[in-house]
Amino acid sequence: MNNFSAPQLDPLHPRRHLQQLQTPFGARSVYDSISFCNRCGSCQQACPTFLQTAQEPCSPRGRNQAARLIAERKLTVSANRELLEKMVNSCLLCGRCTQACAGKIPTAQHMLELRRTLHTRALPFLLHTLLSWRSRRPARFGRWVKMGLFLRRWGAVKIGRLLGLTRLGSLRWINHADDILPRKRDRQAQARWKEFLAQTPQTPTMIYLPSLEAEFFMPQLACSVLQTAQNKHRVRVWTNTASGLFEYVYGDLRQSRRQVRRLIKRWEQEGRLPLLTDSVDVYLFLRAAGQLFDRWPHWQQKADSFARQVRFVTDVLPKKLAAPVSGRVRLDAGALFLREGEPFDSARKILRTHFKKNFVECFYKDADAPAFGYSFVRYNLAAHVWTQAVRSAARTQTGTVFTLSGLSALELGFYLGKLYPYAKADHLARLNG
Protein backbone atom coordinates (compact mmCIF):
# COMPACT_ATOMS: atom_id res chain seq x y z
CA MET A 1 0.00 0.00 0.00
CA ASN A 2 1.31 3.45 -0.90
CA ASN A 3 1.84 5.95 1.89
CA PHE A 4 -0.78 8.67 1.89
CA SER A 5 0.60 12.17 1.47
CA ALA A 6 -1.67 15.07 2.37
CA PRO A 7 -2.14 17.65 -0.41
CA GLN A 8 -0.20 20.86 0.03
CA LEU A 9 -1.04 24.43 -0.88
CA ASP A 10 2.38 24.98 -2.44
CA PRO A 11 4.15 21.65 -3.08
CA LEU A 12 6.95 23.33 -5.08
CA HIS A 13 8.17 25.32 -2.06
CA PRO A 14 7.62 23.14 1.03
CA ARG A 15 10.17 24.95 3.21
CA ARG A 16 8.20 28.19 2.92
CA HIS A 17 5.29 26.53 4.70
CA LEU A 18 4.38 24.71 7.87
CA GLN A 19 3.71 21.01 7.54
CA GLN A 20 1.72 20.73 10.76
CA LEU A 21 -0.31 23.06 12.93
CA GLN A 22 -0.71 22.83 16.68
CA THR A 23 -4.44 22.75 17.43
CA PRO A 24 -6.44 22.13 20.63
CA PHE A 25 -7.07 18.62 19.28
CA GLY A 26 -3.42 17.85 18.60
CA ALA A 27 -1.05 18.28 15.67
CA ARG A 28 -2.64 18.21 12.23
CA SER A 29 -1.34 18.69 8.73
CA VAL A 30 -2.38 21.97 7.17
CA TYR A 31 -4.68 20.19 4.71
CA ASP A 32 -6.33 18.13 7.46
CA SER A 33 -6.86 21.28 9.50
CA ILE A 34 -8.48 23.06 6.55
CA SER A 35 -10.62 20.02 5.67
CA PHE A 36 -11.98 19.83 9.21
CA CYS A 37 -14.18 22.84 8.38
CA ASN A 38 -17.67 21.55 7.55
CA ARG A 39 -18.92 25.03 6.50
CA CYS A 40 -21.58 25.16 9.20
CA GLY A 41 -21.46 28.96 9.33
CA SER A 42 -21.27 29.41 13.10
CA CYS A 43 -18.16 31.56 12.56
CA GLN A 44 -19.78 34.07 10.23
CA GLN A 45 -21.45 36.29 12.82
CA ALA A 46 -18.18 36.41 14.75
CA CYS A 47 -16.06 37.54 11.78
CA PRO A 48 -15.71 41.36 11.70
CA THR A 49 -14.88 41.50 7.99
CA PHE A 50 -17.84 39.34 6.99
CA LEU A 51 -20.14 41.56 9.06
CA GLN A 52 -18.84 44.54 7.10
CA THR A 53 -18.97 43.01 3.60
CA ALA A 54 -21.60 40.23 3.78
CA GLN A 55 -19.53 38.49 1.08
CA GLU A 56 -18.92 34.75 1.28
CA PRO A 57 -15.23 34.99 0.18
CA CYS A 58 -14.64 37.26 3.19
CA SER A 59 -16.16 34.78 5.64
CA PRO A 60 -14.03 32.24 7.52
CA ARG A 61 -15.70 29.26 5.85
CA GLY A 62 -15.27 30.89 2.43
CA ARG A 63 -11.57 31.43 3.09
CA ASN A 64 -11.14 27.84 4.26
CA GLN A 65 -12.99 26.51 1.24
CA ALA A 66 -10.76 28.48 -1.14
CA ALA A 67 -7.62 27.15 0.58
CA ARG A 68 -8.91 23.60 0.35
CA LEU A 69 -9.73 23.91 -3.36
CA ILE A 70 -6.22 25.22 -4.04
CA ALA A 71 -4.66 22.30 -2.15
CA GLU A 72 -6.81 19.88 -4.15
CA ARG A 73 -5.84 21.62 -7.44
CA LYS A 74 -9.46 22.53 -8.16
CA LEU A 75 -8.72 26.25 -8.05
CA THR A 76 -5.71 27.85 -9.71
CA VAL A 77 -3.81 30.71 -8.13
CA SER A 78 -2.87 32.44 -11.38
CA ALA A 79 -6.46 32.78 -12.60
CA ASN A 80 -7.82 34.05 -9.27
CA ARG A 81 -4.90 35.99 -7.79
CA GLU A 82 -6.68 39.32 -7.28
CA LEU A 83 -9.64 37.76 -5.47
CA LEU A 84 -7.37 35.53 -3.36
CA GLU A 85 -5.15 38.44 -2.32
CA LYS A 86 -8.18 40.44 -1.26
CA MET A 87 -9.56 37.43 0.59
CA VAL A 88 -6.29 36.82 2.44
CA ASN A 89 -5.36 40.41 3.27
CA SER A 90 -8.85 41.36 4.43
CA CYS A 91 -8.59 38.71 7.16
CA LEU A 92 -7.54 40.44 10.41
CA LEU A 93 -6.12 37.19 11.89
CA CYS A 94 -8.09 38.06 15.03
CA GLY A 95 -9.10 34.50 15.92
CA ARG A 96 -12.77 35.34 16.51
CA CYS A 97 -13.80 32.57 14.11
CA THR A 98 -11.68 30.04 16.01
CA GLN A 99 -13.29 31.10 19.26
CA ALA A 100 -16.79 30.61 17.80
CA CYS A 101 -15.93 27.32 16.06
CA ALA A 102 -16.80 24.06 17.81
CA GLY A 103 -13.81 22.43 16.11
CA LYS A 104 -11.44 25.32 16.96
CA ILE A 105 -10.32 25.54 13.33
CA PRO A 106 -7.32 27.94 13.07
CA THR A 107 -8.50 29.88 10.03
CA ALA A 108 -5.96 32.66 10.66
CA GLN A 109 -3.12 30.16 10.32
CA HIS A 110 -4.65 28.86 7.09
CA MET A 111 -4.69 32.38 5.69
CA LEU A 112 -1.00 32.83 6.45
CA GLU A 113 -0.28 29.60 4.60
CA LEU A 114 -2.33 30.85 1.65
CA ARG A 115 -0.48 34.17 1.69
CA ARG A 116 2.83 32.29 1.50
CA THR A 117 1.43 30.39 -1.47
CA LEU A 118 0.56 33.66 -3.22
CA HIS A 119 4.04 35.10 -2.46
CA THR A 120 2.37 38.43 -1.82
CA ARG A 121 3.51 41.29 0.40
CA ALA A 122 0.78 42.62 2.67
CA LEU A 123 2.63 45.72 3.89
CA PRO A 124 3.93 48.67 1.84
CA PHE A 125 7.43 48.00 0.55
CA LEU A 126 9.21 50.71 2.56
CA LEU A 127 7.52 49.78 5.84
CA HIS A 128 8.17 46.08 5.24
CA THR A 129 11.86 46.74 4.55
CA LEU A 130 12.29 48.92 7.63
CA LEU A 131 10.65 46.43 9.99
CA SER A 132 12.57 43.49 8.52
CA TRP A 133 15.80 45.17 9.59
CA ARG A 134 14.96 44.52 13.23
CA SER A 135 15.91 40.88 12.84
CA ARG A 136 18.40 41.19 9.98
CA ARG A 137 20.22 44.40 10.97
CA PRO A 138 19.09 45.44 14.47
CA ALA A 139 21.73 48.17 14.89
CA ARG A 140 20.65 49.83 11.63
CA PHE A 141 17.00 49.48 12.61
CA GLY A 142 17.61 51.23 15.93
CA ARG A 143 19.44 54.11 14.21
CA TRP A 144 16.67 54.59 11.63
CA VAL A 145 13.94 54.61 14.27
CA LYS A 146 15.78 57.24 16.31
CA MET A 147 16.41 59.30 13.17
CA GLY A 148 12.75 59.04 12.16
CA LEU A 149 11.55 60.17 15.58
CA PHE A 150 14.04 63.05 15.50
CA LEU A 151 12.81 64.23 12.07
CA ARG A 152 9.20 63.88 13.22
CA ARG A 153 9.82 66.12 16.23
CA TRP A 154 11.23 68.77 13.90
CA GLY A 155 8.19 68.71 11.63
CA ALA A 156 9.36 66.56 8.71
CA VAL A 157 6.13 64.54 8.60
CA LYS A 158 4.01 67.66 8.85
CA ILE A 159 5.86 69.20 5.91
CA GLY A 160 5.46 65.97 3.95
CA ARG A 161 1.73 66.03 4.55
CA LEU A 162 1.42 69.65 3.44
CA LEU A 163 3.34 68.89 0.24
CA GLY A 164 1.28 65.77 -0.43
CA LEU A 165 4.29 63.44 -0.29
CA THR A 166 2.67 61.13 2.24
CA ARG A 167 -0.24 60.53 -0.15
CA LEU A 168 2.08 58.59 -2.45
CA GLY A 169 1.39 54.86 -2.50
CA SER A 170 4.59 53.74 -0.78
CA LEU A 171 4.42 56.49 1.88
CA ARG A 172 0.77 56.48 2.93
CA TRP A 173 1.55 54.37 5.98
CA ILE A 174 3.48 57.33 7.43
CA ASN A 175 0.20 59.21 7.97
CA HIS A 176 -1.24 56.48 10.17
CA ALA A 177 2.05 55.97 12.01
CA ASP A 178 2.18 59.70 12.70
CA ASP A 179 -1.41 59.61 13.97
CA ILE A 180 -0.97 56.79 16.48
CA LEU A 181 2.54 57.45 17.84
CA PRO A 182 2.75 59.66 20.96
CA ARG A 183 3.19 63.36 20.21
CA LYS A 184 5.23 64.15 23.30
CA ARG A 185 8.33 62.44 24.58
CA ASP A 186 8.05 61.06 28.09
CA ARG A 187 11.51 62.18 29.18
CA GLN A 188 11.06 60.92 32.72
CA ALA A 189 10.14 57.42 31.50
CA GLN A 190 13.05 57.41 29.05
CA ALA A 191 15.44 58.35 31.85
CA ARG A 192 14.04 55.60 34.07
CA TRP A 193 14.35 53.08 31.21
CA LYS A 194 18.01 53.96 30.71
CA GLU A 195 18.61 53.54 34.45
CA PHE A 196 17.00 50.11 34.37
CA LEU A 197 19.19 49.06 31.42
CA ALA A 198 22.33 50.24 33.21
CA GLN A 199 21.53 48.01 36.21
CA THR A 200 22.02 44.61 34.59
CA PRO A 201 22.08 41.85 37.25
CA GLN A 202 24.96 39.38 37.21
CA THR A 203 22.75 36.45 38.21
CA PRO A 204 19.33 37.09 36.63
CA THR A 205 16.29 34.95 37.34
CA MET A 206 14.16 36.22 34.43
CA ILE A 207 14.59 37.63 30.92
CA TYR A 208 12.46 40.49 29.62
CA LEU A 209 11.88 40.65 25.87
CA PRO A 210 10.22 44.05 25.29
CA SER A 211 8.01 44.54 22.26
CA LEU A 212 9.06 47.00 19.57
CA GLU A 213 6.49 49.57 20.65
CA ALA A 214 7.43 49.31 24.34
CA GLU A 215 11.14 49.74 23.69
CA PHE A 216 11.07 52.53 21.11
CA PHE A 217 7.74 54.37 21.47
CA MET A 218 6.28 53.59 24.91
CA PRO A 219 9.09 53.67 27.49
CA GLN A 220 6.51 54.09 30.24
CA LEU A 221 5.13 50.64 29.36
CA ALA A 222 8.59 49.04 29.37
CA CYS A 223 9.34 50.68 32.75
CA SER A 224 6.04 49.44 34.23
CA VAL A 225 6.69 45.86 33.13
CA LEU A 226 10.28 45.88 34.32
CA GLN A 227 9.48 47.53 37.63
CA THR A 228 6.70 45.01 38.31
CA ALA A 229 8.88 42.03 37.38
CA GLN A 230 11.72 43.26 39.60
CA ASN A 231 9.53 42.93 42.69
CA LYS A 232 10.15 39.16 42.55
CA HIS A 233 12.93 38.65 39.99
CA ARG A 234 16.33 39.86 38.92
CA VAL A 235 15.62 40.76 35.32
CA ARG A 236 17.91 40.93 32.31
CA VAL A 237 16.58 42.86 29.29
CA TRP A 238 17.14 41.76 25.70
CA THR A 239 17.19 45.11 23.90
CA ASN A 240 16.34 45.53 20.20
CA THR A 241 15.71 41.80 19.85
CA ALA A 242 13.18 40.50 17.35
CA SER A 243 10.93 37.57 18.23
CA GLY A 244 10.41 36.30 14.67
CA LEU A 245 6.70 37.17 14.74
CA PHE A 246 6.97 39.89 12.09
CA GLU A 247 8.53 37.47 9.59
CA TYR A 248 5.97 34.81 10.50
CA VAL A 249 3.04 37.12 9.73
CA TYR A 250 4.39 39.45 7.05
CA GLY A 251 7.60 37.94 5.73
CA ASP A 252 9.44 34.71 5.11
CA LEU A 253 8.76 31.70 7.33
CA ARG A 254 12.36 30.58 6.91
CA GLN A 255 13.64 33.87 8.34
CA SER A 256 11.17 33.56 11.22
CA ARG A 257 12.49 30.08 11.92
CA ARG A 258 16.07 31.35 11.94
CA GLN A 259 15.19 34.15 14.36
CA VAL A 260 13.45 31.79 16.77
CA ARG A 261 16.46 29.48 16.58
CA ARG A 262 18.71 32.40 17.59
CA LEU A 263 16.42 33.16 20.53
CA ILE A 264 16.55 29.55 21.68
CA LYS A 265 20.34 29.42 21.47
CA ARG A 266 20.67 32.65 23.43
CA TRP A 267 18.12 31.43 25.96
CA GLU A 268 20.08 28.23 26.49
CA GLN A 269 23.35 30.13 26.91
CA GLU A 270 21.80 32.36 29.58
CA GLY A 271 20.49 29.51 31.72
CA ARG A 272 17.04 28.65 30.34
CA LEU A 273 15.36 31.34 32.43
CA PRO A 274 11.68 32.31 32.19
CA LEU A 275 11.20 34.79 29.34
CA LEU A 276 8.71 37.63 29.90
CA THR A 277 6.98 39.64 27.17
CA ASP A 278 4.49 42.52 27.22
CA SER A 279 2.86 41.62 23.86
CA VAL A 280 0.18 38.95 23.83
CA ASP A 281 0.88 38.46 20.11
CA VAL A 282 4.54 37.61 20.80
CA TYR A 283 3.45 35.41 23.70
CA LEU A 284 1.03 33.35 21.57
CA PHE A 285 3.58 33.05 18.77
CA LEU A 286 6.44 31.85 21.00
CA ARG A 287 4.19 29.46 22.91
CA ALA A 288 3.56 27.68 19.60
CA ALA A 289 7.19 27.85 18.45
CA GLY A 290 7.40 24.06 18.19
CA GLN A 291 5.31 24.00 15.01
CA LEU A 292 8.07 25.91 13.18
CA PHE A 293 10.38 22.89 13.44
CA ASP A 294 8.14 19.98 12.46
CA ARG A 295 10.85 18.65 10.11
CA TRP A 296 13.58 18.85 12.76
CA PRO A 297 12.63 16.78 15.85
CA HIS A 298 15.74 17.89 17.76
CA TRP A 299 14.91 21.58 17.34
CA GLN A 300 11.22 20.95 17.92
CA GLN A 301 12.05 19.48 21.30
CA LYS A 302 14.15 22.53 22.13
CA ALA A 303 11.41 24.87 20.93
CA ASP A 304 8.82 23.12 23.09
CA SER A 305 11.07 23.47 26.15
CA PHE A 306 11.58 27.13 25.31
CA ALA A 307 7.83 27.69 24.83
CA ARG A 308 7.06 26.36 28.29
CA GLN A 309 9.23 29.12 29.79
CA VAL A 310 7.51 32.02 27.99
CA ARG A 311 5.56 34.29 30.35
CA PHE A 312 3.10 37.14 29.88
CA VAL A 313 2.83 40.21 32.12
CA THR A 314 -0.27 38.81 33.83
CA ASP A 315 2.07 36.26 35.46
CA VAL A 316 4.00 38.97 37.33
CA LEU A 317 1.27 41.47 38.18
CA PRO A 318 0.60 41.55 41.95
CA LYS A 319 -2.80 40.88 43.47
CA LYS A 320 -3.00 44.42 44.82
CA LEU A 321 -2.61 47.11 42.17
CA ALA A 322 -1.99 50.78 42.82
CA ALA A 323 -3.11 52.44 39.59
CA PRO A 324 -5.45 55.42 40.19
CA VAL A 325 -8.01 54.48 37.53
CA SER A 326 -11.58 55.58 38.09
CA GLY A 327 -14.77 54.90 36.19
CA ARG A 328 -15.79 51.87 34.19
CA VAL A 329 -13.13 49.72 32.54
CA ARG A 330 -13.12 46.89 30.04
CA LEU A 331 -10.65 44.53 28.41
CA ASP A 332 -9.93 44.60 24.69
CA ALA A 333 -9.01 41.00 23.92
CA GLY A 334 -7.71 41.70 20.41
CA ALA A 335 -4.84 39.37 19.52
CA LEU A 336 -3.42 37.35 16.67
CA PHE A 337 -4.75 33.84 16.06
CA LEU A 338 -6.41 33.31 19.44
CA ARG A 339 -8.71 35.17 21.85
CA GLU A 340 -9.07 32.68 24.66
CA GLY A 341 -6.84 30.90 27.11
CA GLU A 342 -4.62 31.66 30.08
CA PRO A 343 -3.50 35.28 29.44
CA PHE A 344 -7.05 36.43 28.62
CA ASP A 345 -8.58 34.63 31.59
CA SER A 346 -5.92 36.04 33.92
CA ALA A 347 -6.44 39.58 32.58
CA ARG A 348 -10.21 39.39 33.12
CA LYS A 349 -9.71 38.00 36.62
CA ILE A 350 -7.32 40.84 37.52
CA LEU A 351 -9.71 43.52 36.25
CA ARG A 352 -12.75 41.88 37.82
CA THR A 353 -10.99 41.61 41.18
CA HIS A 354 -9.61 45.14 41.11
CA PHE A 355 -12.60 47.06 39.71
CA LYS A 356 -15.48 44.77 40.75
CA LYS A 357 -18.76 46.22 39.39
CA ASN A 358 -16.92 48.80 37.32
CA PHE A 359 -15.48 46.06 35.11
CA VAL A 360 -17.57 45.82 31.94
CA GLU A 361 -17.85 42.34 30.49
CA CYS A 362 -17.51 42.24 26.71
CA PHE A 363 -20.29 40.61 24.76
CA TYR A 364 -20.08 38.09 21.94
CA LYS A 365 -20.44 40.64 19.12
CA ASP A 366 -18.42 43.45 20.73
CA ALA A 367 -15.66 44.54 18.39
CA ASP A 368 -12.04 44.24 19.42
CA ALA A 369 -9.06 46.13 18.06
CA PRO A 370 -7.30 44.60 15.02
CA ALA A 371 -3.96 43.24 16.17
CA PHE A 372 -0.34 43.65 15.13
CA GLY A 373 -0.52 46.60 12.77
CA TYR A 374 -3.34 45.41 10.55
CA SER A 375 -4.31 48.99 9.82
CA PHE A 376 -1.31 49.08 7.49
CA VAL A 377 -2.34 46.06 5.39
CA ARG A 378 -3.84 46.46 1.94
CA TYR A 379 -7.50 45.47 1.40
CA ASN A 380 -8.18 45.32 5.14
CA LEU A 381 -11.24 46.75 6.87
CA ALA A 382 -9.41 47.72 10.04
CA ALA A 383 -10.76 51.29 10.14
CA HIS A 384 -14.35 49.98 10.21
CA VAL A 385 -13.50 47.55 13.00
CA TRP A 386 -11.77 50.29 15.00
CA THR A 387 -14.94 52.36 14.71
CA GLN A 388 -17.01 49.45 16.01
CA ALA A 389 -14.61 49.04 18.94
CA VAL A 390 -15.06 52.72 19.84
CA ARG A 391 -18.85 52.41 19.56
CA SER A 392 -18.73 49.42 21.87
CA ALA A 393 -16.80 51.44 24.47
CA ALA A 394 -19.18 54.38 24.11
CA ARG A 395 -22.27 52.19 24.37
CA THR A 396 -21.11 50.87 27.76
CA GLN A 397 -19.79 54.29 28.88
CA THR A 398 -16.35 52.86 29.44
CA GLY A 399 -13.68 55.24 30.73
CA THR A 400 -10.57 53.08 30.24
CA VAL A 401 -10.02 50.23 27.80
CA PHE A 402 -7.12 47.97 28.71
CA THR A 403 -5.31 46.08 25.98
CA LEU A 404 -2.78 43.25 26.00
CA SER A 405 -0.35 44.84 23.55
CA GLY A 406 1.19 48.28 23.29
CA LEU A 407 0.41 48.66 19.59
CA SER A 408 -3.30 48.00 20.20
CA ALA A 409 -3.24 50.62 22.97
CA LEU A 410 -1.68 53.18 20.62
CA GLU A 411 -4.12 52.58 17.78
CA LEU A 412 -7.22 52.32 19.96
CA GLY A 413 -6.14 55.44 21.86
CA PHE A 414 -6.01 57.39 18.59
CA TYR A 415 -9.52 56.35 17.52
CA LEU A 416 -10.94 56.96 21.00
CA GLY A 417 -9.43 60.44 21.04
CA LYS A 418 -10.91 61.12 17.63
CA LEU A 419 -14.40 59.65 18.12
CA TYR A 420 -14.98 59.25 21.85
CA PRO A 421 -12.52 61.43 23.84
CA TYR A 422 -14.21 60.58 27.13
CA ALA A 423 -12.34 57.26 27.15
CA LYS A 424 -8.68 56.31 26.88
CA ALA A 425 -6.71 53.15 26.12
CA ASP A 426 -3.79 51.72 28.05
CA HIS A 427 -1.83 48.50 28.41
CA LEU A 428 -2.86 46.21 31.26
CA ALA A 429 0.67 46.33 32.71
CA ARG A 430 0.20 50.04 33.40
CA LEU A 431 -2.26 49.12 36.16
CA ASN A 432 0.72 48.80 38.49
CA GLY A 433 1.96 52.32 37.77
Please name the defining characteristics of this protein.
four-stranded parallel beta sheet; Glutathione S-transferase Yfyf (Class Pi), Chain A, domain 2; Fumarate Reductase Iron-sulfur Protein, Chain B, domain 2; 10 strands; globular; single chain
Note down, in words, how this protein is organized.
- This protein is an alpha/beta fold.
- It is built from 20 helices and 10 strands.
- Strand 1 (20-23) and strand 2 form a beta hairpin.
- It starts with 19 loop residues before the first strand and ends in a 6-residue tail after the last strand.
What's the gist of this structure?
The protein has 433 residues and is α/β, with parallel strands linked by helices. It has 20 helices and ten strands.
Question: What's the layout of helices and strands?
Answer:
Blueprint: E1 20-23, E2 26-29, H1 30-35, H2 48-53, H3 60-71, H4 81-89, H5 96-100, H6 107-118, H7 125-136, H8 138-153, H9 156-163, H10 173-180, H11 187-198, E3 206-209, H12 212-216, H13 219-229, E4 235-237, H14 245-250, H15 253-269, E5 275-277, H16 280-287, H17 297-307, E6 310-312, E7 329-331, H18 342-355, E8 359-360, H19 382-395, E9 400-403, H20 406-419, E10 424-427
Helix pairs in contact: 3-6, 4-6, 7-8, 11-13, 15-17, 19-20
CATH architecture of the largest domain: Up-down Bundle
Biggest sheet layout: 4 strands, parallel
- From the N-terminal CA to the C-terminal CA, the straight-line distance is 65 Å
SSE-based structural type: alpha/beta
SSE ordering = EEHHHHHHHHHHHEHHEHHEHHEEHEHEHE
Number of separate structural domains: 3
Strand content: 5-15%
Query: What count of helical segments does DSSP give?
Result: 20
Task: Describe the strand arrangement of the main beta sheet, using strand numbers.
Answer: 4-3-5-6
Using the coordinates shown, work out and report the CATH topology of the largest domain.
Answer: Glutathione S-transferase Yfyf (Class Pi), Chain A, domain 2
Percent of residues in helices: 40-55%
Tally the beta strands.
10
- CATH C-level class of the largest domain is Mainly Alpha
Instruction: State mean pLDDT (0 to 100 scale).
Output: 89
- Write down the Rg: 21 Å
Instruction: Choose one word for the global shape.
Output: globular
Low-confidence stretches: none
